[in-house]
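Notes continue from the previous slide.

Worked example: a multi-chain complex. Inputs as given:
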Amino acid sequence: DTEVTQTPKHLVMGMTNKKSLKCEQHMGHRAMYWYKQKAKKPPELMFVYSYEKLSINESVPSRFSPECPNSSLLNLHLHALQPEDSALYLCASSQTTGETEAFFGQGTRLTVV
Amino acid sequence: AQSVTQLGSHVSVSEGALVLLRCNYSSSVPPYLFWYVQYPNQGLQLLLKYTTGATLVKGINGFEAEFKKSETSFHLTKPSAHMSDAAEYFCAVTGNAGGTSYGKLTFGQGTILTVHP
């Protein structure tokens, strides 16, 4: 199983809503990542978890709150988002951080209205 | 700091022609380099990677890339394009252990490859 599964695939939320994005992998990977990808742009790193601990936060606004409940799961909690936060949110995992390849999920297409 | 520059946001080739997608990197430490492909509304799939060792790296779907330290380049090639190769391609870099960029995958701006019949 080399899959990273993200749910939901599409999400529309209002600016006052609270929602969560979920990511799951069963490859035994110990590094998990959240990326944000705007239209016609490359993915931008948001957070890195290594061995279930947050190791990198790329100065992401606090309305995005990551959580890693266990080594297989990664959540991204969303609250009070802005329309400019609309994007494709990609989850990825790798054996460890660094030189090992990252496996990406299909992404969640988020629209903030 | 590390960065990647992909020359050409759009490349168009005929089916059966050579594919060449250019990537130059900037890194203060020996880099790890990757090429990913993204089909519309999908995630990214790794084509190939360079970490250490042989500088000519072979990947999936007939793609290969050569790490040239003197030119700070990691260009992606395929001898014969197929219609199914049409997608967006991203070159990416991450730093090796001990550097501040370790674990941070930085992507280039992407190159959209169009394949004409």
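Summary box: The radius of gyration of chain B is 14 Å. Chain B touches chain A at residues 32, 34, 36, 41-46, 49, 51, 90, 94-97, 102-110 (CB under 8 Å).
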